[in-house]
Structure formats: C-alpha cells, structure tokens
C-alpha cells in the first residue's frame, strides 16, 4: 500500500505576519518613563534686579546633617513628623492686611508664615548625607504641598490635585484639557511649591 505524503504547510508568509505584528506592537505600546524629582534651576540673576526680601518667619529651615539626623528650625525631629510640621507652616496664614490668607486653615500664629504664597521651605544637606535620607526628606516635603493642594482641589473642583494631574497627562481624557490646565494653575498659585535647596555643607 502506497504511503501518502503529508501535505506541507506553506510558511512563506509567516515572516511577513511576524514582522507586521512586531511593527503593530512597537507602534501601539506606550512606555512609562520615570519623571524623577521635579526641580528647576533658578533663572540667571539680573545684576540690577534686587532679590525679594524674605521675613525670617516665612522661612522654614530643614537641615539634614552627615549622620542623617533631621533638624527642623534647629530642633531634632523624626522624619514621620516632618510632613505635618511642613503643612502647619505652609497653611499657618498668620498674615494681616495684604498678606492675609482667607483659605488657610492653620493656627494663624503671628510668629509663623504669613501666607502660603510667601512661605519658603529651605532644605540644607550635608555632603555626607545619604541619598536615601535626602530623597525621603524631599518626598515628605513634596507630600506636604500635595496634601494642601489636594484639600483645596477637593473644595473647589471635587477632585484631588493628583487626580487632576493624572487626567492632564492622560491622552484619552474626555474633558476640556485647557480648562483643567487653568484649574491646576489656580491651585498651584494658591500653594506654590517654594522649596529652596542651599549649597550642601562639607
């Protein structure tokens, strides 16, 4: 009895199909990239322009020494307490007249910051500070700003500030992005992120 030859599968177009699939996945796949810490270098200083005068009470000094100890206003503090201390400083609202803050919910201590728009957090590090501690302190300070921005965003727009930023970066966001940009800008003006980093000490 004669043996039947097995039919051959034509694989000539398989390479074309694999190539088309590869192109399809390369075009449609989105790769998330880490944005890192959002910091900008200060603009060039104009010699004729005088730097703004800051009141001592509007500066919140945070220092990390070479032993990774955290000092806030020259007093030792645990990292877990830093966010609450920064929120209390930023949201104090102790100003009078033009410096008054009508949306602040702080203690209104006249010895602390006048207004979130005037408040500056000054971060000083030692060159021997560990990178992990430096990032942890940065995270707590940025989280303090985000906490206040989330609160005011919920009051004004019934949505957190973090969600608003996510929506702005979402390519499929169905709403009006220009309106969303204006809302985000308004919140950033109410609680501007004024985080100053001094030259590290040796």
TrEMBL record:
Its main location: membrane. One of its GO terms (molecular function) is transmembrane transporter activity. One of its GO terms (cellular component) is plasma membrane. Coiled coil: none annotated. It is a single-pass membrane protein; Single-pass type II membrane protein. It comes from the Bacteria. The keyword Transmembrane applies. It is found in: Cell membrane. The keyword Cytoplasm does not apply. GO terms for biological process: protein transport. Pfam families: ExbD. Keywords: Cell membrane, Membrane, Protein transport, Transmembrane, Transmembrane helix, Transport. Belongs to the ExbD/TolR family. This is Biopolymer transport protein ExbD. The lineage of its organism: Bacteria, Pseudomonadati, Bacteroidota, Flavobacteriia, Flavobacteriales.
């Amino acid at each position: 009895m004669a043996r039947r030859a097995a039919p051959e599968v034509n694989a000539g177009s398989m390479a074309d199909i694999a190539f088309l699939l590869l192109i399809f996945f390369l075009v449609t796949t989105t790769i998330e990239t880490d944005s890192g810490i959002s910091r900008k270098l200060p603009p060039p200083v104009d010699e004729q322009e005088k730097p703004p005068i800051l009141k001592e009470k509007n500066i919140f000094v945070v220092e990390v020494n070479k032993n990774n100890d955290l000092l806030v206003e020259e007093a030792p503090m645990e990292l877990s307490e830093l966010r609450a201390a920064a929120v209390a400083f930023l949201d104090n609202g102790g100003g009078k007249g033009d410096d008054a803050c009508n949306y602040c919910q702080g203690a209104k201590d006249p010895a602390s910051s006048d207004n979130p728009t005037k408040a500056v957090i000054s971060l000083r590090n030692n060159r021997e500070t560990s990178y992990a501690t430096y990032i942890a302190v940065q995270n707590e300070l940025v989280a303090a700003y985000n906490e206040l921005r989330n609160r005011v965003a919920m009051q004004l727009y019934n949505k957190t500030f973090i969600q608003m930023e996510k929506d702005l970066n979402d390519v499929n966001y169905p709403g009006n992005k220009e309106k969303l940009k204006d809302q985000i800008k308004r919140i950033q003006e109410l609680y501007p992120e004024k985080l100053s980093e001094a030259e590290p000490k040796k």
